[in-house]
Amino acid sequence: xxxxxxxxxxxxxxxxxxxxxxxxxxxxxxxxxxxxxxxxxxxxxxxxxxxxxxxxxxxxxxxxxxxxxxxxxxxxxxxxxxxxxxxxxxxxxxxxxxxxxxxxxxxxxxxxxxxx
Length: 116
Description:
Blueprint: H1 3-43, H2 47-75, H3 81-93
């Protein structure tokens, strides 16, 4: 075989190899682009989930403040635990439902008086 024929075959093989590698590289670039897009879209937080997380954090903060207030009231001798529980139950029933929720005014109603 002549050198020029071998050079031609070598060039042809190089061309096939380059073409094959170019296709593989192109597919890899497409895969990387898809993965980047997937990562971007999963990084965007669902607005409902974000709102739920915000509400959970606010609820935890409120619970902390209420627990602190209850303890201060008890430590200062203003109201004992049993009386506080009774008061919570009384306020819970003010809206006509005993449901561990309060839909009424947070301030004392005019007819309010603590029962002993």
